[in-house]
Write a structure and sequence with these properties.
The strands form three sheets. The chain has a three-stranded antiparallel beta sheet with strand order 1-2-3. It has one domain. Strand 2 and strand 3 form a beta hairpin. About 3% of the residues have low confidence. The protein is an alpha+beta fold. The protein is 38% helix and 23% strand. It is rod-shaped. The chain contains three helices and eight strands. Keywords: Membrane, Transmembrane, Transmembrane helix. It holds the Pfam family N_methyl. InterPro entries: N_methyl_site, Pilin-like.
């Protein structure tokens, strides 16, 4: 006669408790989707700023305005600094085509534009005022005719 043996109830409960402990310790690492979304959004904004800057620079070269410290392109009107978009609300919004329904855009002190995502992922065009904001993209305009804008992504506080 064969004896069928299975797992006892105590063994099953112990396995379930161990799996529960593993799930509790590992789940937060895999379920941090909010931070991943903010970081991806900031990287997309950086890519958009880079691409838009290259297109504006190409248009400035065609208009022979790439060596000028300040100029304006037409259709659409974009203020430029050495061929790249200036750090103004209008220039950045026109170059990147930022939707105001998704982004809060405001002028800060100096030549600094703050672009804040309405989901609290922060983006800034400029430099010093947003150095302490940890979840941001900073856009500093070209400093000379041979320099490109400096675009930096900071994800520490996302």
């Amino acid at each position: 006669m064969k004896r069928n043996q299975g797992f006892t109830l105590v063994e099953l409960v112990i396995v379930i408790v161990i799996l529960g402990i593993l799930a509790v310790t590992a789940a937060p690492k895999f379920l941090n989707f909010g931070t991943d979304a903010k970081v991806s959004t900031l990287n997309a904004v950086k890519g958009s700023l880079t691409s838009a800057g290259a297109m504006v620079y190409g248009k400035a070269v065609l208009a022979s305005k790439q060596a000028s410290a300040t100029a304006t392109l037409t259709n659409p009107a974009i203020d430029i600094v050495y061929g790249y978009p200036a750090a103004t609300v209008v220039a950045v919004q026109a170059a990147v085509d930022i939707e105001t329904a998704e982004w809060d855009i405001s002028l800060e002190t100096g030549p600094l534009v703050a672009i804040r995502a309405k989901n609290k992922a922060y983006v800034a065009a400029g430099a010093a005022d947003f150095a302490t904001t940890a979840c941001q993209v900073t856009y500093a305009p070209a400093a000379s005719a041979t320099a490109k804008p400096v675009i930096t992504v900071s994800i520490g506080g996302c």
